[in-house]
Amino acid sequence: MIENERMDVPELLESVSLLVPEETATENDITVRDIWDYLVHDEWEIALGLLEELGDGRKFPLTFWEKLAEAAAQLRLERSAAWCRWRCSEIRNGVIRADLTLRPAAGARRTTPVSGAGVLRAMWDIGHLSPTGGRPVSIAFLWVENMPMLEPGGRATVRLVPLTPAHWTHVQPGQQITMHEDRTVAGTAVILDVHRPATAMPAG
CB–CB of 146/53 below 8 Å? Predict the structure, then answer.
């Protein structure tokens, strides 16, 4: 990202806009042409938010999210910067979306909320067996969709980015996995969909 460091916010956002096909639209029918209007009037924060929205659910190149992350960081939009960096990690390592239910505080080690912004590095039992018959765990970072945090006993759709993608190649929608922060079960999740790493995608 050395080239990004020489670019200011307007240049970064203009560069990102050029990666969006003209026919791409948000649920509210906002297109890249609308974003250009905001850029012309120096409404950078609005333009950035709309570019994030255009990127949701679509396969844009790594450069799209890298430059958005840099622009958000320069605008001091910490949550947006974290989200864009997270999307970069999803492209590199793949992502598993799941319906997670945490155990209530009274029955689990955790008594405080889980951060929703990709901070927690949890262990997951995803069905592997060790040569001795034990249940090894695999590590994945966790992002809670549409919520700043998830309370004990709470339920939400989460996004998991595996630390070692090769450990997760067998998981599939409908499979149940368990979350751990120690030997005890911290939560139970049902996999909704799986997206494999896309590191071979062109940088744009």
Answer: no
Residue 84 CA to residue 55 CA, distance in Å, equals 10
- End-to-end CA separation in angstroms for the chain: 13
Residue 204 near residue 65 (C-beta atoms within 8 A) = no
Q: Are residues 21 and 66 in the same domain?
A: yes
Contact 35, 28 (CB under 8 A): no
Structural domain of 38: 3-92
Q: pTM for the complete prediction?
A: 0.84
Closest CA to 125 of 110, 114, 109, 136: 136
Identify whether 202 is part of a domain: no
Please report the DSSP string for 22-84 in residue order: TT-B-TT--BHHHHHHHHHTT-HHHHHHHHHHHHTTS---HHHHHHHHHHHHHTT-HHHHHHH
Give me the amino acid identity at 186: A
User: Which two structure tokens, joined as six digits, stand for 64?
Assistant: 């799209």
Measuring CA to CA, which residue among 100, 107, 190 is closest to residue 154?
100
How many CA atoms within 13 Å lie on the side-chain side of 14?
10
- CA–CA dist 68, 74 (Å, integer): 10
Beta bridge partners of 161: 141
pLDDT for res 1: 41
Neighbour count for residue 112 (Cβ, 10 Å): 9
- pLDDT mean over 19-34: 85
Residue 200 inside a domain? The answer is no
